[in-house]
Fold this protein.
Amino acid sequence: MNAVADLIPHSGSMVLLERIIDYDDQSLIAEVVVRGDGLLGGDERSVPAWVGIEYMAQAIAAFAGVMARQAGEPIRLGFLLGTRRYGSNIAAFKAGSTLTVRVKKIMQDDNLGVFDCRIDGEGVEITANLNVYQPPLNDTPEVVSLVENVAG
């Protein structure tokens, strides 16, 4: 199985997924070990449960990366447009805990997608639908430039 960092447009400490467990043409399952480094909030003991949205988004990015690799295409940048139906039974993840992140394609066209997402772990049940956008391959440099200018 490919390393997660080879499948998503993130690098270094921003790669939050530990590994890809399984995938098919409709879904992907990944594993996360919750880090207590405070990168996205929290401290050495816990991380806010809303960070699960980023875990889900990275699992979707990994799914897109796997599909791109299978099609002989480059890994492309994608954007989280929104989250619907977010439900969580916890307020925070325990640092060091292992979580399973599942993403399943509900619909996807060339640029837009909706995924049913779930995070499970010991005492953890989180669900959400994520809406994502991936610019066309030939527009990606302009979109990256725009994002860099806005963020810059």
